[in-house]
Amino acid sequence: MIMDLTQLANLGEFIGGVAVPVTVIYLAAQLRHNSRTSRFSANVALHGKLN
């Protein structure tokens, strides 16, 4: 199956349209994890213990 330029462009647009929301969701999860880790580290630094 040989694809012409229009079909390749449509495929690229579809892949890009799927990749952007997936990337945003991944970055939001990473930001949430980083925020929790930072709060935990600050708590440990303030109180000097893990509990």
Write the layout of secondary structure elements.
Elements: H1 5-47
Summarize the structure.
The protein has one helix at residues 5-47. It is an all-alpha fold and 51 residues long.
Fold and architecture overview:
- With 51 residues, the protein is mainly alpha-helical.
- It has a domain at 20-51.
- Helices cover 84% and strands 0% of the residues.
- It has one helix at residues 5-47.
- The longest helix has 43 residues, at 5-47.
- The mean pLDDT is 93.
Topology order in helix (H) and strand (E) letters:
H
Name the overall outline.
Answer: rod-shaped
- Structural class by sheet pairing and helices: mainly alpha
Question: How many whole angstroms does the radius of gyration measure?
Answer: 21 Å
* Ends distance: 62 Å
Question: Overall pLDDT, averaged?
Answer: 93
How many beta-strand elements? 0
Largest sheet: none
The helicity comes to: over 70%
pLDDT < 50 runs, ≥5 residues = none
Number of helices: 1
Taken as a percent bin, the fraction of beta residues is: under 5%
